[in-house]
From TrEMBL:
Transmembrane segments: none annotated. InterPro entries: BetaGal_gal-bd, Galactose-bd-like_sf, Glycoside_Hdrlase_35. Coiled coil: none annotated. Pfam families: BetaGal_gal-bd. This is Beta-galactosidase galactose-binding domain-containing protein.
Length: 274
């Protein structure tokens, strides 16, 4: 948080490593494994410009380790790590001292064994290029060329920006975006931030509910096996009658063609007393 100055959820770490042509894995051996220790909250890994995987912390433990095989070639290889924060800590003992971000990087499976990349020369960049270009705003969205049609929405690529235009629905019912077809990211309407979305699925036990005894956060859970949040409120005051701009930044990959704007209907029940 001290590095990004709270200007972005995203912090890029980049470095390079030279691989000898004599490494056994280049001749059909087992691929090397990259381990990245993080204090939270999420991480995306790119090797030589190609997405290699993601890892996330949990509600119980923000810290985690990414472990995955990586495609390296002889010569210079480029490693890019995107550390993602999901808001600021706001509760807990001495939460102002809690750390976020990468704390160690290691490469296993080379001929000489484990290689500590933490001491390598790293560069960092705060935020996304799209954030710097204000792609979420009506003014900034025209500054780049966009791919149109089904190829754009169904590519399911990571770290991708999407845009669409829509007309405001009639009526005065509350509105929400249904983001179930997406993964994790942020969404804006007419330059206003709807917020972060994350289709993290609830786990645990959702059996019988009893509030007796000592309270625990896991008591009386509901929605196991479903997204913890699927619908995201959209104030009608943000909307124009026509040509409302929807911008989505997707970190993991999703089907943007299935994003929908839905109305909330309230059923009134009348009871007649005799």
């Amino acid at each position: 948080m001290n590095v990004t100055r709270d200007t972005s959820d995203y912090l890029w770490y980049t470095t390079s490593i030279d691989i000898s042509p004599s490494e056994p894995f280049l001749r059909g051996g087992k691929k090397p494994t990259l381990n990245v220790d993080s204090a939270g909250h999420a991480l995306h890994v790119f090797i030589n410009g190609q997405f290699s995987g993601s890892a996330f912390g949990t509600r119980k433990d923000r810290g985690f380790t990414f472990t995955g095989p990586v495609n390296l070639h002889a010569g210079t290889n480029h490693i890019a790590l995107v550390s993602v924060a999901v808001g600021l800590p706001n509760i807990g003992l001495h939460f102002e001292t809690w750390k976020t971000g990468i704390v160690g990087v290691y490469l296993n499976g080379l001929d000489k064994g484990k290689k500590d990349l933490s001491s390598h020369k790293w560069s960092y960049q705060v935020g996304l290029k799209g954030e710097a270009m204000y792609l979420a705003s009506p003014e900034g969205v025209s500054s780049v060329e966009w791919i149109q049609g089904s190829l754009a929405t169904k590519s399911r690529q990571s770290m991708t920006w999407y845009k669409a235009y829509f007309d405001a629905p009639t009526g005065n019912e509350p509105l929400a975006l249904d983001m179930r077809s997406m993964g994790k990211g942020q969404v804006w309407i007419n330059g206003q931030s709807v917020g972060r979305y994350w289709m993290a699925y609830g786990n645990g036990e959702c059996g019988k509910c009893s509030y007796s005894g000592t309270y625990q956060p896991t008591k009386c859970q509901s929605g196991c096996g479903h997204p913890t949040q699927r619908w995201y409120h959209v104030p009608r005051s943000w909307l124009k009658p026509k040509q409302n701009l929807l911008v989505v930044f997707e970190e993991l990959g999703g089907d943007a063609s299935k994003i929908s704007l839905v109305r909330r209907s309230v059923l009134n029940r009348h009871h007649h007393n005799k």
